[in-house]
């Protein structure tokens, strides 16, 4: 008996699987099948599959049962996977240790288990970690370093030294799909390059700026890993100091620094070309999630630019009654 599957070309297999996984549509109880030039990805809900993907019936085999962490516990633990690093968020050190032991004993591919030990803090937006499990055969490699794969790109990340959120993969991909091959795109708070690298993969000339020197090192490495080093410029520094070097340059600007992006709008106004798309990320109360950002953008750019908000989009819930949102704004001088 067949099960609903999304058929894709082998070259697009990982990107499509990641896209479906981000939407929680991959049916974990069945194996993904490679049949000549086509990959069949079993799915849970055909009605929820994006319109640009097909759904067919295919005889995918039932996956052999795996031992999961919950099988070794008397409860269902909460954890997040970033490549082969698994992150838990437990206030009780003993409970965290019990969960880590169950994760290591399961069939999950795991290199390191981490427990969040602080909130994101400081100018570089990093956090503290408790290392609950790590490999013995890689003493010189940071326990917090991991390879994360996202929509066909590969990112080397040290979670202890840089800010990175895999939960924003779908949002990043939404923006990346808008980029043209002839564009000049600048990410004002670039991190390890999750916007910059795929921009360059689409043929854009991409610049990433970040105050964190370690993030810039990883950005350069990730540009090399993905074969786009010739189209990526990575700059360590405060984007307000960098802005004069890129005056009137950018066709597209990314401002993903919620809580304080408004402090950098003067720099954005300097960098924006005559026709520019701005992706402005903000965190605001649910009563008015978009208004503060839109008012700040208009105050910075009008009357020199015509300001048109093309998209108002809630990325995710951030905290009770607070939302992480984005404004896609067309700026025309």
Structure in a nutshell:
With 333 residues, the chain is α/β, with parallel strands linked by helices. The chain has eight helices and 17 strands.
Please give a handful of descriptors for the protein shown:
7-stranded mixed beta sheet, SAM-dependent_MTases_sf, 333 residues, Rossmann fold, globular, 3 domains, alpha/beta, tRNA methyltransferase activity, GMP Synthetase, Chain A, domain 3, S-adenosyl-L-methionine, 8 helices, TRM5/TYW2-like_N, Alpha-Beta Plaits, 4-stranded antiparallel beta sheet, tRNA processing, 22% helix
Protein described:
- The protein has three domains: 3-58, Alpha-Beta Plaits, CATH 3.30.70; 69-143, GMP Synthetase, Chain A, domain 3; 150-332, Rossmann fold, CATH 3.40.50.
- It has helices at residues 13-22, 93-105, 169-176, 196-201, 213-225, 239-242, 265-271, 291-301, and strands at 3-9, 33-35, 38-42, 56-58, 80-82, 85-88, 112-116, 129-133, 145-150, 153-158, 184-187, 205-210, 232-236, 250-255, 272-285, 306-319, 322-332.
- It is globular and about 60 Å long.
- Helix content is 22%, strand content 32%.
- The chain contains eight helices and 17 strands.
- The longest helix is centred in the N-terminal third of the chain and has 13 residues, at 93-105.
- By secondary structure, the chain is an alpha/beta fold.
- The protein has a seven-stranded mixed beta sheet with strand order 13-12-11-14-15-17-16. Strands 2-3-1-4 form a four-stranded antiparallel beta sheet. The chain has a four-stranded mixed beta sheet with strand order 5-6-7-8.
- The N and C termini lie far apart (59 Å).
């Amino acid at each position: 008996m067949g099960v609903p599957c999304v058929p894709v070309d082998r070259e697009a297999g990982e990107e499509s699987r990641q896209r479906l996984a981000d939407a929680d549509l991959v049916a974990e109880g069945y194996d993904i099948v490679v049949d000549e030039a086509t990959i069949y990805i079993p799915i849970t809900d055909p009605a929820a599959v994006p319109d640009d993907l097909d759904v067919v019936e295919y005889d995918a085999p039932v996956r052999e049962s795996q031992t999961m962490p919950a099988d070794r516990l008397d409860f269902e633990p909460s954890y997040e996977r970033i490549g082969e690093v698994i992150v838990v968020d437990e206030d009780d050190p003993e409970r965290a240790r019990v969960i880590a032991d169950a994760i290591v004993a399961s069939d999950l591919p795991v290199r390191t288990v981490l427990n969040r030990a602080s909130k994101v803090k400081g100018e570089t937006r990093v956090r503290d970690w408790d290392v609950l499990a790590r490999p013995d055969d890689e003493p010189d490699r940071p326990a917090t370093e991991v390879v994360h794969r996202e929509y066909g790109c590969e990112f080397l990340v040290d979670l202890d030294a840089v800010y990175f959120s895999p939960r924003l993969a779908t949002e990043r991909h939404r923006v990346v799909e808008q980029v043209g091959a002839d564009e000049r795109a600048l990410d004002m708070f670039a991190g390890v390059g999750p916007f910059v690298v795929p921009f360059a993969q689409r043929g854009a000339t991409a610049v990433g700026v970040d105050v964190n020197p370690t993030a810039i090192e990883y950005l350069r490495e990730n540009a090399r890993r993905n074969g786009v080093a010739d189209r990526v410029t990575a700059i360590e520094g405060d984007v307000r100091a960098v802005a004069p070097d890129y005056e009137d340059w950018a066709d597209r600007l990314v401002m993903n620094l919620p809580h304080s992006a408004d402090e950098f709008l003067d720099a954005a106004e300097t960098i924006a070309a005559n026709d520019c798309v701005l992706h402005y990320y903000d965190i605001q109360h649910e009563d008015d999630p978009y208004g503060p950002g839109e008012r700040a953008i208009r105050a910075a750019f009008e009357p020199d630019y015509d300001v048109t908000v093309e998209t108002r989009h809630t990325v995710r819930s951030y905290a009770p009654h607070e939302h992480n949102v984005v404004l896609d704004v067309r700026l025309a001088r």
